[in-house]
Specification:
Shape: flat
Radius of gyration: 14 Å
Number of helices: 5
Largest sheet: none
Strand content: under 5%
Structural class: mainly alpha
Number of strands: 0
Helix content: 55-70%
């Protein structure tokens, strides 16, 4: 499925970045963001309603790094 213009040409560059954050697809990255209370697609559309689809997907990929880093840095609570 083509999510944005030139998807077939661009996905080869995007996939290694996705995989470095543990995601297999942009859709999976979106699900991860949503599960952590971030809706990048909505933010892009509210900020710039005429934005191209590739912009919305680019901002879906962007939050993966800080979300993953924050998840690793959360202190473990002791079992009581």
């Amino acid at each position: 499925m083509s999510l944005f213009e030139n998807y077939q040409r661009r996905i080869e560059q995007i996939t290694p970045i996705l995989q470095s954050y543990g995601a297999d697809s942009l859709e999976q990255a979106q699900e991860y963001c949503l599960a952590h209370g971030v809706d990048p697609q909505k933010i892009v559309r509210e900020t710039q309603p005429i934005a191209f689809d590739d912009a919305a997907w680019a901002y879906t990929l962007g939050p993966l790094s800080p979300l993953k880093r924050a998840q690793k840095q959360q202190p473990k609570l002791p079992n009581i």
